TrEMBL record:
Database matches in SMART domains: HTH_XRE (SM00530)
Species per Swiss-Prot/TrEMBL record: Asticcacaulis taihuensis
Entry GO MF terms: DNA binding
Source taxon at top rank: Bacteria
Name this polypeptide is given: Helix-turn-helix
Domain HTH cro/C1-type per the UniProt entry, residue ranges: 13-67
Amino acid sequence: MSTLKRPMINDALRLVRLYWGLSQKGIADELEISQSMISEIERGAKAVSMDILEKYSAKLNIRMSQLLFFAEELDNEPVQNKGKLIVAGSVLKLLQALAPNEIKTAV
């Protein structure tokens, strides 16, 4: 049985939610989308659209460029600079390692 690797953008959005101390329902209410959509995005079952990223950016005061840093591809268009993916993956690992204990146990 093979398992698909969750895209980095999905992990980044999960960490953003956790660092803001929001539940999936809380972030869903902020973004005016369903909690099930948040769950599917965080699990990697659903692709992240530019519309969703714009909502995260606007509601949580995060620049789009900061969110897009973790996007391997959007709308099936791969990122041109593969070196960026190595750095983005390392940043996610570092953030996870530095996360408060209550965040580590919530995931």
